[in-house]
Amino acid sequence: KQTLLPLLPEETSSFIFPCNPAMQRPELKYMVMELLRCIPLLLFLLFVCGLDHFIFSILSIIQHHSFIEYSYQTSHHLSVNVMGASLMAELLRTTIGALNTSVDTEVETSNLACLPQPTGMTKQQYLDTFLPLGALALLCLAQVYPFRLRRAIAAFYFPKREKTRVLFLYNRLLRQRKNFLYLQRGRVARQAQQPPGL
């Protein structure tokens, strides 16, 4: 009404104007609170990604500096010579002669199969990890605009309650203005009563 509008500059800071695209002072408080709730998630993600990079670095150092290669060579020759021409010597030559062996062994092995094979996260994987948190922060910034529709939706379904709410707001603003003028008159009167030197 004309008795109330236009609002004073002190009054406009405590109201939300739905058609104003800028974020207003009452909305900023809730938006900052929602953004502060995202900080623990951000810190947790940074901790997990840092821990992942740290473990990857340690495993990579182990892989590059713990490689050992073994080369094992052995030669084994067994030869039994039975001297003589008797029947017993012939029998021993046929039976024990089967034990004559010659073995050359060469083994090359390494611990490559036991070493870790770490694979670090790519930039795309880091981006995919932080993308939901970024979307959450953007939703925290954009939530102020859908919240402005709450009053209009409630007024559509409960018009009597909306009328009561508007009357209450109107009377409260009138009382605040009356009290403001009363307080200002008292302040000016107190200043007038003070000595000029103070």
UniProtKB/TrEMBL annotation:
Which Pfam family name is an example for this entry? DC_STAMP
Give the top-rank taxon of the lineage listed in the UniProt record for this protein.
Answer: Eukaryota
Its predominant location is membrane
- Organism classification, top ranks? Eukaryota, Metazoa, Chordata, Craniata, Vertebrata
Give the organism the record lists. Sitta europaea (Eurasian nuthatch)
Dendritic cell-specific transmembrane protein-like domain location, by residue? 1-170
Presence of keyword Cell inner membrane: no
What is this entry's stated membrane topology?
Multi-pass membrane protein
TM spans (from-to): 39-62, 129-147
The cellular location(s) given in this protein's UniProt record come to:
Membrane
Q: What is this protein called?
A: DCST1 ligase
Does Lipoprotein appear among the keywords?
no
Q: What UniProt keywords are attached to this protein's entry? A: Ligase, Membrane, Transmembrane, Transmembrane helix
Q: Which GO terms describe its molecular function?
A: ligase activity
